[in-house]
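User: tokens in, sequence out, please.
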């Protein structure tokens, strides 16, 4: 599934935040916030918050996360 590079970056940063070690959460949260702020600014969406954008992307994120988990399982099964 092909997406815009900015969208891919947001989805990846979100995935990394949700799957990282607790000690790394602050770094990943900051990166996700930066990407969301840049997306809102680029689109000129005044009055739209990071949370609003994440809610709008929730379905796409679900598909993205599912695909990433499948990829990871396939990679791990090849190592066995």
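Assistant: Sequence out:
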């Amino acid at each position: 599934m092909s997406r815009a590079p900015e969208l891919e970056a947001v989805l990846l940063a979100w995935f990394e935040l949700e799957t990282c070690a607790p000690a790394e959460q602050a770094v990943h949260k900051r990166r996700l916030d930066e990407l969301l702020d840049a997306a809102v600014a680029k689109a000129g969406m005044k009055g739209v918050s990071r949370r609003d954008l994440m809610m709008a992307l929730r379905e796409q994120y679900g598909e993205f996360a599912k695909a990433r988990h499948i990829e990871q399982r396939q990679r791990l099964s090849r190592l066995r």
